[in-house]
Amino acid sequence: MLRKALLFVICAVIVVFAATTAAQSPAPIKLPAPKMDGGKPLMDVLKARQSAREFGDEKLSRQTLSNLLWAAWGVNRPDGRRTAPSASNKQEVDIYVTLPEGAYVYDAKAHALNPVVAGDLRGGTGTQPFPATAALNLVYVADMAKAGRPATDPQQQLNVGADVGFIAENAYLFCASEGLATVVRASVPKPELAKQLKLRADQQIVLAQSVGYPKK
Protein backbone atom coordinates (compact mmCIF):
# COMPACT_ATOMS: atom_id res chain seq x y z
CA MET A 1 0.00 0.00 0.00
CA LEU A 2 2.80 2.40 0.88
CA ARG A 3 4.48 1.78 -2.45
CA LYS A 4 1.23 2.44 -4.33
CA ALA A 5 0.61 5.61 -2.36
CA LEU A 6 4.13 6.83 -3.08
CA LEU A 7 3.70 6.07 -6.78
CA PHE A 8 0.44 8.01 -6.80
CA VAL A 9 2.08 11.04 -5.18
CA ILE A 10 4.97 10.97 -7.67
CA CYS A 11 2.56 10.80 -10.62
CA ALA A 12 0.55 13.70 -9.21
CA VAL A 13 3.69 15.80 -8.82
CA ILE A 14 4.73 15.06 -12.42
CA VAL A 15 1.30 16.08 -13.73
CA VAL A 16 1.33 19.34 -11.74
CA PHE A 17 4.89 20.10 -12.89
CA ALA A 18 4.01 19.46 -16.53
CA ALA A 19 0.91 21.64 -16.30
CA THR A 20 2.89 24.45 -14.65
CA THR A 21 5.63 24.27 -17.27
CA ALA A 22 3.08 24.35 -20.08
CA ALA A 23 1.43 27.40 -18.54
CA GLN A 24 4.78 29.19 -18.40
CA SER A 25 5.54 28.72 -22.11
CA PRO A 26 3.14 29.68 -24.91
CA ALA A 27 2.85 27.50 -27.97
CA PRO A 28 5.30 28.06 -30.86
CA ILE A 29 3.94 30.06 -33.79
CA LYS A 30 4.72 28.91 -37.32
CA LEU A 31 4.26 32.05 -39.37
CA PRO A 32 2.71 31.98 -42.84
CA ALA A 33 5.10 32.58 -45.71
CA PRO A 34 5.80 36.30 -46.05
CA LYS A 35 4.28 38.16 -48.98
CA MET A 36 7.22 39.80 -50.71
CA ASP A 37 5.37 41.69 -53.41
CA GLY A 38 3.10 44.73 -53.31
CA GLY A 39 3.40 47.63 -50.93
CA LYS A 40 3.74 51.32 -51.64
CA PRO A 41 6.54 52.79 -53.79
CA LEU A 42 9.72 53.54 -51.85
CA MET A 43 9.51 57.33 -52.18
CA ASP A 44 5.91 57.30 -50.91
CA VAL A 45 6.98 55.16 -47.95
CA LEU A 46 9.84 57.51 -47.07
CA LYS A 47 7.46 60.43 -47.25
CA ALA A 48 5.00 58.67 -44.92
CA ARG A 49 7.54 57.39 -42.37
CA GLN A 50 6.93 58.80 -38.87
CA SER A 51 6.80 57.88 -35.18
CA ALA A 52 3.52 57.42 -33.32
CA ARG A 53 2.87 56.86 -29.63
CA GLU A 54 -0.86 56.14 -29.70
CA PHE A 55 -2.27 52.81 -30.79
CA GLY A 56 -5.67 51.31 -31.53
CA ASP A 57 -7.05 48.07 -30.11
CA GLU A 58 -6.83 46.00 -33.31
CA LYS A 59 -4.37 43.10 -33.37
CA LEU A 60 -2.07 42.36 -36.28
CA SER A 61 -3.05 39.34 -38.35
CA ARG A 62 -0.59 36.47 -38.53
CA GLN A 63 0.11 37.41 -42.14
CA THR A 64 0.91 41.02 -41.27
CA LEU A 65 3.12 39.88 -38.38
CA SER A 66 4.89 37.50 -40.76
CA ASN A 67 5.48 40.25 -43.30
CA LEU A 68 6.69 42.69 -40.62
CA LEU A 69 9.28 40.31 -39.19
CA TRP A 70 10.52 39.26 -42.63
CA ALA A 71 10.85 42.89 -43.70
CA ALA A 72 12.71 43.76 -40.51
CA TRP A 73 15.18 40.89 -40.31
CA GLY A 74 14.14 37.97 -42.48
CA VAL A 75 16.20 35.75 -44.77
CA ASN A 76 16.12 37.10 -48.34
CA ARG A 77 18.82 35.00 -50.05
CA PRO A 78 19.61 31.28 -50.34
CA ASP A 79 22.87 31.75 -48.41
CA GLY A 80 20.98 32.83 -45.27
CA ARG A 81 21.72 36.53 -45.48
CA ARG A 82 19.09 38.94 -44.32
CA THR A 83 16.99 41.97 -45.26
CA ALA A 84 19.22 44.21 -43.11
CA PRO A 85 23.04 44.28 -43.07
CA SER A 86 25.15 43.30 -40.08
CA ALA A 87 28.84 43.90 -39.42
CA SER A 88 30.89 41.01 -40.88
CA ASN A 89 27.55 39.20 -41.31
CA LYS A 90 27.64 38.15 -37.65
CA GLN A 91 23.82 38.36 -37.45
CA GLU A 92 24.17 38.96 -33.73
CA VAL A 93 20.79 40.64 -33.24
CA ASP A 94 17.71 38.70 -32.13
CA ILE A 95 14.18 40.10 -32.20
CA TYR A 96 12.06 39.27 -29.17
CA VAL A 97 8.35 39.81 -29.82
CA THR A 98 5.97 40.57 -26.96
CA LEU A 99 2.35 39.76 -27.72
CA PRO A 100 -0.64 39.69 -25.35
CA GLU A 101 -0.30 35.92 -24.93
CA GLY A 102 3.45 35.80 -24.35
CA ALA A 103 6.99 36.63 -25.42
CA TYR A 104 8.70 34.93 -28.35
CA VAL A 105 12.02 35.10 -30.19
CA TYR A 106 11.99 35.30 -33.99
CA ASP A 107 13.68 32.40 -35.77
CA ALA A 108 14.43 33.86 -39.20
CA LYS A 109 15.62 30.58 -40.74
CA ALA A 110 12.43 28.74 -39.83
CA HIS A 111 10.36 31.93 -40.11
CA ALA A 112 8.70 31.12 -36.81
CA LEU A 113 8.27 32.49 -33.31
CA ASN A 114 9.78 30.33 -30.59
CA PRO A 115 8.18 30.72 -27.16
CA VAL A 116 10.11 32.32 -24.30
CA VAL A 117 7.55 32.91 -21.56
CA ALA A 118 3.78 33.15 -21.23
CA GLY A 119 2.06 36.33 -20.09
CA ASP A 120 1.67 39.87 -21.35
CA LEU A 121 5.04 41.64 -21.11
CA ARG A 122 4.17 44.51 -23.45
CA GLY A 123 4.06 47.08 -20.66
CA GLY A 124 7.38 45.86 -19.32
CA THR A 125 9.18 46.78 -22.55
CA GLY A 126 8.98 50.51 -21.83
CA THR A 127 8.97 53.15 -19.10
CA GLN A 128 5.96 54.95 -20.58
CA PRO A 129 2.33 53.76 -20.63
CA PHE A 130 1.82 53.39 -24.39
CA PRO A 131 3.88 50.20 -25.06
CA ALA A 132 1.22 48.28 -23.11
CA THR A 133 -1.42 49.45 -25.61
CA ALA A 134 0.49 48.55 -28.79
CA ALA A 135 -0.42 45.33 -30.59
CA LEU A 136 3.14 44.16 -30.04
CA ASN A 137 6.59 45.32 -29.10
CA LEU A 138 9.83 44.28 -30.76
CA VAL A 139 12.81 44.06 -28.40
CA TYR A 140 16.18 44.13 -30.15
CA VAL A 141 18.73 42.00 -28.29
CA ALA A 142 22.41 41.77 -29.22
CA ASP A 143 24.03 38.38 -28.60
CA MET A 144 27.58 39.38 -27.78
CA ALA A 145 28.71 35.74 -27.96
CA LYS A 146 28.14 35.96 -31.74
CA ALA A 147 29.59 39.43 -32.20
CA GLY A 148 33.26 38.49 -32.27
CA ARG A 149 34.55 41.31 -30.05
CA PRO A 150 34.29 42.09 -26.32
CA ALA A 151 31.02 43.78 -25.40
CA THR A 152 32.97 46.76 -24.02
CA ASP A 153 34.86 47.34 -27.27
CA PRO A 154 33.79 50.76 -28.66
CA GLN A 155 33.76 49.48 -32.25
CA GLN A 156 31.60 46.55 -31.19
CA GLN A 157 29.10 48.87 -29.54
CA LEU A 158 29.02 50.98 -32.70
CA ASN A 159 28.49 47.89 -34.88
CA VAL A 160 25.64 46.61 -32.72
CA GLY A 161 23.95 50.01 -32.61
CA ALA A 162 24.17 50.34 -36.38
CA ASP A 163 22.85 46.81 -36.97
CA VAL A 164 19.84 47.38 -34.71
CA GLY A 165 19.23 50.71 -36.44
CA PHE A 166 19.08 49.03 -39.85
CA ILE A 167 16.54 46.47 -38.60
CA ALA A 168 14.40 49.07 -36.84
CA GLU A 169 14.31 51.24 -39.96
CA ASN A 170 13.18 48.27 -42.04
CA ALA A 171 10.31 47.86 -39.58
CA TYR A 172 9.55 51.59 -39.85
CA LEU A 173 9.36 51.44 -43.62
CA PHE A 174 7.13 48.37 -43.57
CA CYS A 175 4.79 50.11 -41.12
CA ALA A 176 4.67 53.21 -43.32
CA SER A 177 3.79 51.05 -46.32
CA GLU A 178 1.04 49.16 -44.43
CA GLY A 179 -0.50 52.10 -42.57
CA LEU A 180 0.71 50.89 -39.17
CA ALA A 181 1.83 53.06 -36.26
CA THR A 182 5.29 52.52 -34.77
CA VAL A 183 8.00 54.15 -32.69
CA VAL A 184 11.48 52.98 -31.73
CA ARG A 185 12.45 53.54 -28.11
CA ALA A 186 15.54 53.67 -25.92
CA SER A 187 13.33 54.02 -22.83
CA VAL A 188 13.47 50.36 -21.77
CA PRO A 189 13.82 49.00 -18.21
CA LYS A 190 16.65 46.75 -19.36
CA PRO A 191 17.63 44.81 -16.19
CA GLU A 192 14.03 43.94 -15.33
CA LEU A 193 13.08 43.05 -18.91
CA ALA A 194 16.24 40.97 -19.41
CA LYS A 195 15.24 38.89 -16.40
CA GLN A 196 11.68 38.45 -17.69
CA LEU A 197 12.96 37.39 -21.12
CA LYS A 198 15.44 34.96 -19.51
CA LEU A 199 18.42 36.55 -21.25
CA ARG A 200 21.97 35.43 -20.59
CA ALA A 201 24.57 37.83 -19.22
CA ASP A 202 26.12 38.16 -22.71
CA GLN A 203 22.81 39.19 -24.28
CA GLN A 204 22.16 42.94 -24.25
CA ILE A 205 18.89 44.76 -24.87
CA VAL A 206 19.60 47.65 -27.25
CA LEU A 207 16.24 49.20 -28.21
CA ALA A 208 12.54 48.37 -28.37
CA GLN A 209 9.93 49.25 -30.98
CA SER A 210 6.17 49.45 -30.49
CA VAL A 211 3.93 48.46 -33.43
CA GLY A 212 0.18 48.55 -33.90
CA TYR A 213 -2.67 50.16 -35.78
CA PRO A 214 -3.14 53.93 -35.40
CA LYS A 215 -5.57 55.11 -32.76
CA LYS A 216 -8.79 56.33 -34.40
Features of this protein?
NADH Oxidase; 216 residues; seven-stranded antiparallel sheet; alpha+beta
Structural overview:
The protein is α+β, with helices and mostly antiparallel strands. It has a single domain (27-212), classed as 3-Layer(aba) Sandwich (NADH Oxidase). 36% of the residues lie in helices and 21% in strands. The chain has six helices and seven strands, in the order αβααββββααβαβ. A seven-stranded antiparallel sheet has the order 1-4-3-2-5-7-6, sandwiched between helices. Helix 2 (42-48) packs across helix 5 (154-178). The longest helix has 25 residues, at 154-178.
Q: What would you say about this model in short?
A:
This protein is 36% helix and 21% strand. The protein is α+β, with helices and mostly antiparallel strands.
Q: Tell me the number of structural domains.
A: 1
Could you state the CATH homologous superfamily?
NADH Oxidase
Large-scale geometry: globular
* Alpha-carbon distance between the two ends: 67 Å
Which SSEs are present, and which pair or pack?
Layout: H1 2-24, E1 29-30, H2 42-48, H3 62-73, E2 93-99, E3 102-107, E4 112-118, E5 136-143, H4 144-147, H5 154-178, E6 181-185, H6 190-196, E7 203-212
Helix pairs in contact: 2-5, 3-5
